[in-house]
């Protein structure tokens, strides 16, 4: 004979199911009432990005900023057609990112235990990007002073800068109190992002990187060009805030 559930258990289950259904129906009705007759969003809703403002460093000290600008110009050297990483604003991009949520590790799990994981797991250390840059840049200048007669990294000739960065990349250059190889890898990624990101974030100044690769930017759509292959897009790139020449000049 099949055992019947206790009356109390069955009753509580009915109450739970009925209450859940009522909650869902009430919630749907409330949401429907909110959006009825109007669009279900407000202008600028959704935490839009804040444009990077020109001006002094927001995170770097003066010496740190010079070092990152020097690194950016060796990671992305200038040529006759395109500015290098410094003039493209890559160091400004990194500075503003370190001063914001990226530097604070917002959205990441930052509680112990801290231990080295595999590469695919990403950073596992307690130190975030801001602390990594601060420690590594100080250690980099100390290393250069000891090897190049008191000169800091930003003051080295380009050949010595390249040799130092190559040593960091390969692990031959050791920094006291910092992982030089990990720092170099992170700096390369950050400089690259600054070079190709929307100018809104402080890098890719005057959209120089987009012009170099022929990227048309954040235009509204490309429907007229979907079926047109191997043709150069004839219009200049546009960022999320438009183009600099579209902004009226204050006289």
Present the secondary structure layout:
Layout lengths: L6 H29 L26 H14 L14 H9 L2 H4 L24 H19 L10 H13 L9 H17 L11 H6 L38
Describe this structure in words.
This protein is mostly helical and about 250 residues long. Helices cover about 45% and strands about 0% of the residues. α6 crosses α7. The protein is globular, with a radius of gyration of 27 Å. About 10% of the residues have low confidence.
Radius of gyration over all CA atoms, rounded: 27 Å
Helix content range: 40-55%
| Number of helical stretches of at least 4 residues | 8
DSSP E strands, number: 0
What is the element string, with H for helices and E for strands?
Answer: HHHHHHHH
Structural class: mainly alpha
Q: Stretches where pLDDT falls below 50 for ≥5 residues?
A: 5-11, 20-33
Rough outline: globular
Bin the strand percentage: under 5%
How far is it from the N-terminal to the C-terminal residue, by CA?
A: 93 Å
Essential attributes:
251 residues; mainly alpha; 8 helices; 0% strand; globular
